[in-house]
Design brief:
Structural class: alpha+beta
CATH topology: Alpha-Beta Plaits
InterPro entries: Dimeric_a/b-barrel, EthD_dom
Order of helices and strands: EHEEHHE
Largest sheet: 4 strands, antiparallel
Protein name: EthD domain-containing protein
Number of domains: 1
Shape: globular
Organism: Amycolatopsis saalfeldensis
Radius of gyration: 14 Å
GO molecular function: oxidoreductase activity
Oligomer: single chain
Number of helices: 3
CATH architecture: 2-Layer Sandwich
Pfam family, one: EthD
């Protein structure tokens, strides 16, 4: 499993961000090939102080190759290009292989 995480600092217009993200951006995301699961939240908090991020998005792919293919696909390029339409605070994109823990 490979995870892609997008961390969004606070935008200039939080209401626009929320509305655009749900109405326009997420439908584009769901069209990415190889996407296994996704989730997001606007309720980012920290244990102390102000949270450095306004929103978070997580996507799961079978492996790094599937994630790279999805991001470089026409749909993935459209998703990337769309970020400027709502994320005035920018976006931090990270990805990593997921290691399963044992309980």
């Amino acid at each position: 499993m490979h995870k892609l995480v997008v961390l969004y600092p606070k935008p200039a217009d939080p209401d626009h961000f929320r509305d655009y993200y749900v109405t326009n951006h997420l439908p584009l995301v769901t069209q990415m090939p190889g996407l296994l699961a996704w989730r997001y939240s606007f309720d980012v908090t920290t244990t102390q102080g102000q949270p450095p991020y306004f929103a978070i998005f997580e996507a799961e792919f079978a492996d790094a190759t599937a994630m790279t293919a999805a991001r470089s696909s026409p749909q993935g390029r459209q998703v990337s290009a769309d970020v400027a339409n709502y994320a005035t605070g920018g976006a931090v994109v990270i990805d990593y292989p997921v290691q399963d823990g044992i309980v």
